[in-house]
């Protein structure tokens, strides 16, 4: 991830992406998180507070006000229809910085995604 310091986590669930970065002491400046359930993110924030309270205080629920270095998509594409995937991705790409920006897609699978594929 090089010098990424500003992140947008889409499908952040219990904030596992930020928790993982925190566990390896990755330096993070600004953190944005989006998920269907704010309650689920709050549960993850409580875990993150125990690891590094300074990181949990940097999390903003919602879209960024400025460009980000990396957008992480966690378990979102497996849960949406294939024809909506490009449109969904396009709606977030506009938040990427124009220099050295990254997209990370993590799709380990969820109950819902397995039901959609069968």
Write the layout of secondary structure elements.
Elements lengths: L5 E5 L5 H8 L6 E5 L3 H14 L1 H4 L2 E3 L8 E5 L7 H12 L8 E5 L4 H7 L1
List keywords for this structure.
single chain; 118 residues; alpha/beta; Rossmann fold; 5 helices; 38% helix
Describe the protein in words.
The protein has five helices and five strands, in the order βαβααββαβα. The protein has helices at residues 16-23, 38-51, 53-56, 82-93, 111-117, and strands at 6-10, 30-34, 59-61, 70-74, 102-106. Strands 3-2-1-4-5 form a five-stranded parallel sheet, with no helix packed on it. The longest helix has 14 residues, at 38-51. The protein is globular, with a radius of gyration of 14 Å. The mean pLDDT is 88.
In brief, what are we looking at here?
The protein has 118 residues and is α/β, with parallel strands linked by helices. Helix content is 38%, strand content 19%.
Number of domains: 1
Strand order of the largest sheet: 3-2-1-4-5
The CATH topology assignment is Rossmann fold
What is the CATH first-level class name?
A: Alpha Beta
Helix content: 25-40%
Q: What is Rg?
A: 14 Å
Beta-strand content: 15-25%
Largest sheet features = 5 strands, parallel
Report, as a whole number of angstroms, the end-to-end distance: 34 Å
Multimeric state: single chain
- The CATH architecture would be 3-Layer(aba) Sandwich
What's the number of helices? 5
Element-by-element helix/strand order: EHEHHEEHEH
Overall structural class, as computed from helix and strand content, comes to: alpha/beta
Low-confidence stretches: none
Task: Give the overall average pLDDT.
Answer: 88
Q: Output the CATH homologous superfamily.
A: Vaccinia Virus protein VP39
How many strand units?
5
């Amino acid at each position: 991830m090089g010098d990424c310091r500003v992140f947008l986590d889409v499908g952040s669930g219990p904030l596992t992406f930020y928790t993982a970065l925190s566990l390896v002491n990755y330096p993070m400046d600004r953190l944005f998180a989006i998920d269907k359930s704010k309650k689920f993110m709050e549960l993850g924030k409580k875990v993150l507070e125990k690891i590094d309270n300074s990181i949990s205080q940097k999390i903003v629920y919602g879209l960024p006000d400025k460009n980000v270095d990396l957008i992480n998509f966690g378990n979102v594409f497996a849960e949406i229809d294939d024809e909506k995937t490009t449109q969904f991705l396009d709606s977030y790409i506009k938040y990427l910085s124009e220099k050295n920006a990254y997209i990370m897609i993590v799709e380990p699978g969820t109950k819902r995604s397995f039901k959609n594929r069968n």
